Amino acid sequence: MRLIATDLDGTLLDSASAVTPRTRRALDAARAHGVHVVPVTARQPIGLRAIAAEAGFTDWALCGNGAYATNLFDGRLLFAEELPPETIRALAEALRASIPGLLFASVREGGETFVAEHGYAEIADYADHKRHPHSMGGVPIDDVLAAPTLKLVIRHPELAPTVLFERLQELELAGFEATLSGAPFVEVMAEGVTKATGLARLCEHLGVSQSDVVAFGDALNDVEMLRWAGHGVAMSGSADVVLDAADEVAASNDDDGVARVIERMLAQA
Question: Which top-rank group of organisms is this from (predicted)?
Fold first, then answer.
């Protein structure tokens, strides 16, 4: 084990979105053994900063479901894969034609800029994006779709994200990758972008082989990463598609599942 790649919400963090003392000790022990500990998340940097001190994250992180790698110490970007405006415009127009009332937001500029459509903030909570809705503002849909985006967010005031995701899968369009993270919206990245592709690029940069990666996750957006890693660990209670992608099922995030696996692996090293 040379690198730990861990999802955050529902995986590393408990139900209160906190890092437990046991989990922090396990992460510190791994780092003391020279193991890279990398958060791999749908969150943007603003959401990572909220828990970075608790988890001891001070180095590379993968954000936006693998769309970009950012250094939490100095803000450097290793890479960033963006969706072009023409792709997100075609996608939005096709979806809006069949589902009235959709709302969109765009993540830009290394994850630091969040551009939301008029009305988006009214149905958002702080927990959705780790930013207060009153800070989101609101712009016309054309402005949301006018620039390249690291992640396009699609949500509806009433329809569940799974419904939107299924409708999106039915569209005869290409050029994007869509997934669900457990948040109340669908997340769309550039074509081919997943947590696995981002992790592969970061591992190449760090000189870590695929077989030396242990990955933890609990949601649909973790599936590719769990399959790619040398050892994929799903959290107890995950959906069947996530469990099937993993080599092992850990205890739940509220029972220090990640810490338990790390402790065992370090003891066996």
Answer: Bacteria
